[in-house]
Amino acid sequence: MTGRRILVVEDNPLNQKLVRDVLTASGYQVLVAGTGEEGVRLAAAEAPDLILMDIQLPGIDGYEALRLLRQMPQLAGLPVVAVTAFAMPEDRERATREGFDGYLGKPISVSALPSQVDEFLSGRGADVS
């Protein structure tokens, strides 16, 4: 599924570059936001096919950004995946409870990321810690 647009909401420039480079090499179009607020604005303006959302962000965190996204009717079916270094079972449970469609733990696996994104886009999910 190449050409699909992925919005990466991540404040760490090295993580932004890593994810952008891996997904771009796999044929995805990648948009990057460095804050939750910017992520919400970009999602509303660009209607990506999937959002990879860091939980710990400056300003509003990933949970609040997700709440704002879920209030927008035009983005109702948009899959949003939590990406976080918090890898305890309760972190995964909270992400699910808060409404994320999936969960990826950091550090992200460069080799697995494209197939994980494919699974999230297909609706099969790919929860990975």
Could you walk me through the main structural features you see in this protein, from its secondary elements to its overall organization?
With 129 residues, the protein is α/β, with parallel strands linked by helices. The protein is built from 5 helices and 5 strands, in the order E-H-E-H-E-H-E-H-E-H. It has a single domain (5-122), classed as Response regulator (Rossmann fold, 3-Layer(aba) Sandwich), CATH 3.40.50. The protein has helices at 13-25, 36-46, 62-70, 89-98, 113-122; strands spanning 5-9, 29-33, 50-54, 80-84, 102-105. Strands 2-1-3-4-5 form a 5-stranded parallel β-sheet, sandwiched between helices. Helix 2 (36-46) runs parallel beside helix 3. The longest helix has 13 residues, at 13-25.
Briefly say what this structure is.
By secondary structure, the chain is of the alpha/beta class. Helix content is 41%, strand content 19%. It has one domain: Response regulator (Rossmann fold, 3-Layer(aba) Sandwich), CATH 3.40.50.
